[in-house]
Design goal:
Layout: E1 2-6, H1 10-21, E2 25-30, H2 35-39, E3 44-46, H3 52-59, E4 64-67, H4 71-83, E5 88-90, H5 105-119, E6 125-126, E7 128-130, E8 133-134, H6 142-146, H7 152-155, E9 172-173, E10 178-181, E11 192-196, H8 198-208, E12 217-219, E13 223-226, H9 227-238, E14 243-246, H10 249-261, H11 265-278, H12 288-292, H13 301-312
Parallel strand pairs: 1-2, 1-4, 2-3, 4-5, 5-6, 7-12, 8-11, 10-14
Antiparallel strand pairs: 9-10, 11-13
Bound molecules: NADP nicotinamide-adenine-dinucleotide phosphate (NAP).
Domain NmrA-like: 2-259
GO molecular function: oxidoreductase activity
Protein name: NmrA-like domain-containing protein
């Protein structure tokens, strides 16, 4: 099967590597030539997302496109998949379950893409790959240093808000033994979230290429954890008790209003993702990709965290 992966950051590299390991022909689409990726063994085709002919030419003969590219370029990619008779398309999702997200700018753009895919579903099959939160947020240097995300969506959202993915910016500050978590729902129940290592996401995506028909969502995870247990694991790995702040729903919303009034967009973005976690948007009970491919042995959060910080010591 011929597969194209759009984008070239770490997640795209994990997916491409895993797809090749499954024996498929695979290449990446990029706005640039990216010779350093060719040196690493990746095949890269340079495209111009604003030139339909360039995209069309790259997609001839491709069965499946996996996108990590968002916004208008992704919509152009869908149009070109239709013109080049691509059979399947997976949009840049790779987070919580769609339609449970609030209509903040970043989420709205993703919903627009999913709506477009619904319109064309007779011609182009699609699925939303859902994986919860990447473990890579919690390693040394955070998501930014992990290279998993190119960071474009987070650096410059349409509202100009900024969320860089620095170390300790999201729930857990492993280095300084601190955590701020929305541990309880508005009703007082424990909050859970799903978490996955980006490399495991790549392996699940590659396995799911085998499916004859994709369901609307393909959910995968390394672990589903109560947020209090998520911090407990970090404490166990470090062998220290962390200073844990449990932030309630009311306080989260009040802080978000204050940050909004102060035009502190970085803080607003941080609070938005905490609110999303507290609302359970990053949680799902069944993980159908794990059920279908139990041979994909996922890393537990403890395994991943221990390894990530051992390298730092
Ligand atoms: N679950 C989580 O914790 C989590 C965290 C972060 C991201 N994600 C998800 O992972 C996926 C990828 O995220 P990301 O942060 O890497 O996305 P991104 O910053 O938008 O970058 C993805 C790719 O898009 C291409 N790109 C960037 N800007 C572009 C533009 N203006 N026009 C055309 N192409 C452009 C880049 O490839 P080239 O430069 O090679 O063209 C890049 O590799 C998204 O679906 C995101 O939601 C999930």
């Amino acid at each position: 099967m011929k597969v194209a992966v759009a984008g070239t950051a770490g997640l795209a590299q994990h997916i491409t590597r895993a797809v090749a390991e499954e024996g498929h022909e695979v290449f990446m689409l990029s706005r640039y030539q990216r010779p350093q990726l060719a040196e690493k063994g990746f095949r890269v085709i340079q495209v111009d997302y604003f030139n339909p002919e360039s995209l069309h030419a790259a997609l001839i003969g491709v069965d499946t496109v996996i996108s990590t590219v968002s916004g208008t370029p992704q919509l152009a990619l869908i149009d070109s998949c239709l013109s080049a008779c691509v059979r399947r398309f997976a949009p840049a999702e790779f987070e919580g379950v769609p339609y449970e997200r609030p209509m903040i700018e970043q989420g709205r753009e993703k919903i627009d893409t999913l709506n477009r895919l619904r319109e064309v579903k007779e011609k182009l099959q699609s699925t939303a790959f859902c994986c919860g939160i990447f473990y890579e947020w919690f390693g040394p240097g955070g998501l930014s240093r992990s290279g998993v995300s190119a960071g474009t969506i987070l650096e410059a959202t349409p509202t100009g808000r900024v969320f860089l993915g620095d170390e300790a910016c999201y729930m857990l500050d492993f280095r300084n033994e601190r955590a701020t978590i929305p541990a309880y729902t508005e009703k007082g129940d424990d909050v859970y979230a799903c978490f996955t290592a980006a490399a495991d996401v790549g392996r699940f995506v590659a396995k799911c290429l085998k499916m004859e028909t994709w369901p609307e969502q393909l959910k995968m995870r390394g672990e589903r954890l109560k947020l209090l247990d998520f911090v407990g694991i970090a404490e166990a790995v470090k062998g220290r008790t962390f200073n844990v702040t449990i932030i309630g729903s009311e306080e989260l919303h009040e802080q978000a209003i204050d940050a909004d009034e102060a035009e502190d967009w970085k803080q607003v973005s941080k609070l938005e993702v905490l609110i999303a976690a507290q609302r359970g948007e990053l949680d799902f009970l069944r993980a159908n990709a794990n059920d279908c491919y139990p041979e994909v042995e996922t890393l537990s959060f403890k395994q991943w965290l221990s390894k990530a910080w051992a390298q730092e010591a």
